[in-house]
Recover the amino acids of this structure.
């Protein structure tokens, strides 16, 4: 079967509005990358596909309401994945919505990635890129990184307070198994001191003394962290020099 017919048939089976990349044609892209590129270009020219950005397309479909375009979730997915692997994850103020700490939807999508300087926003989705302190991002560790990011951005949280954030994150961290705390501690060690201090105080209060000691040893004993957390919520905050 000719490459054009192969690609055309596969595209026909895909839902309209779904983003399509070269990764959807792995074998063809490996064996005949130039032929695949020409085929996709041909499908753009005849109106079967629409180019969303370089290397990303979607199946064109007209409805009575106009052209059916990819959803924001589809666009976000394309910004987080490259060749089927995560290069970033949803971060910033969106984590408070994710953890049901806040009901306010942020005006801008924040994506954490190891190298934010090389990233670009989508034409339709306003995105801000921030540094991910953990270089290797995968499906398994994203949730843990978002837990730590809730502490990292605590002073910017909207429609809530630092005390409420600490309360919510303490409950979430308390639900983790010991092996998960070990993993989370490994990630936390790569974060800024203020995040480490809050995380250390939380796991210390939950009885994970060994892991809390590891965190404390990584901190400057003379540093103080002005967060604005209630002593009722974090009784050991002075020990961790949190204000």
């Amino acid at each position: 079967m000719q490459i054009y017919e192969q690609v055309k048939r596969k595209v026909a089976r895909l839902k309209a509005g779904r983003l399509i990349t070269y990764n959807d044609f792995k074998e063809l892209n490996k064996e005949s990358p130039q032929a695949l590129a020409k085929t996709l270009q041909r499908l753009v020219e005849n109106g079967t596909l629409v180019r969303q950005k370089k290397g990303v397309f979607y199946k064109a479909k007209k409805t009575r309401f106009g052209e059916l375009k990819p959803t924001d979730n589809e666009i976000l997915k394309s910004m987080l994945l490259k060749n089927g692997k995560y290069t970033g994850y949803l971060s910033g103020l969106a984590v408070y919505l994710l953890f049901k700490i806040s009901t306010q939807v942020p005006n801008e999508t924040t994506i954490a990635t190891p190298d934010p300087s090389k990233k670009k926003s989508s034409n339709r989705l306003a995105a801000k890129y921030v540094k991910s302190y953990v270089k290797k991002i995968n499906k398994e560790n994203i949730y843990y990184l978002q837990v730590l990011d809730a502490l990292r951005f605590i002073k910017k949280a909207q429609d809530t307070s630092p005390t409420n954030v600490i309360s919510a994150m303490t409950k979430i961290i308390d639900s983790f198994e010991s092996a998960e705390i070990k993993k989370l501690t490994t990630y936390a060690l790569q974060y800024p001191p203020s995040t480490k201090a809050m995380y250390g105080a939380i796991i210390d209060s939950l009885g994970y003394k060994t892991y809390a000691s590891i965190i404390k040893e990584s901190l400057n004993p003379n540093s103080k962290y002005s967060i604005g957390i209630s002593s009722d919520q974090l009784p050991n905050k002075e020990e961790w020099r949190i204000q």
Summary: The chain is about 40% helix and 15% strand. The chain has a mean pLDDT of 89. The longest helix spans residues 33-45. The longest strand covers residues 49-53.
